[in-house]
Amino acid sequence: MHVETRDEDYPWFADITNFLASGIVLKGLTHKQKKKFFSDDKHYFWENPYLFRVGADQLVRRCVYSDEARKILSHCHEGLTGGHNGATSTAKKVFDAGFFWPTIFCDAYDMVQSCDAYQRASNISSQDEMP
What residue spans of 1-131 are helical by DSSP H? Predict the structure, then answer.
């Protein structure tokens, strides 16, 4: 199995998947990048057709990317169990559901900031008050 990496919208984990499935390492990496790649690689394992990551809490989570990640975030933030919570709570629900991607906290923060229902329901802080 080999995941194509020509398109700019390829999965963030394509290089790890290629290495785990077929032993192919991305060419052109510096020594430092290779060292980081191989140190990060030991946290992942390939179970066809999915890549999984073992977290620091020893829980196994499935790696997802872009479109699927947005749908998962939307479900955890706006779904029946969501309740339009903040970014940290939304990210925690994604982790509890068993999913992982590296930018989960940034994506959750961006989603919460663009959520009209959350912005209307959140409390007014001292930053929002007029002087």
Answer: 14-22, 31-41, 66-78, 87-97, 104-114, 116-121
Positive or negative CA dihedral for 116, 121, 123, 128? positive
Sheet holding 99-100, edge to edge: 44-47, 50-54, 60-63, 99-100
Treating both helix axes as pointing N-terminal to C-terminal, what angle do 14-22 and 31-41 enclose, rounded to 10 degrees?
70
- Owner of token pair 């923060």: 109
pTM to 2 decimals? 0.73
Give the model confidence (pLDDT) of 6-55 as tens digits: 455 678 888 888 888 888 888 888 999 899 889 888 899 988 889 999 98
Contact between residue 95 and residue 53 where contact means Cβ atoms under 8 Å apart: no
At 58, give phi and psi (nearest 5°).
65, 20
Predicted local distance difference test score (pLDDT) of residue 60: 94
Cβ atoms of 54 and 43 closer than 8 Å? yes
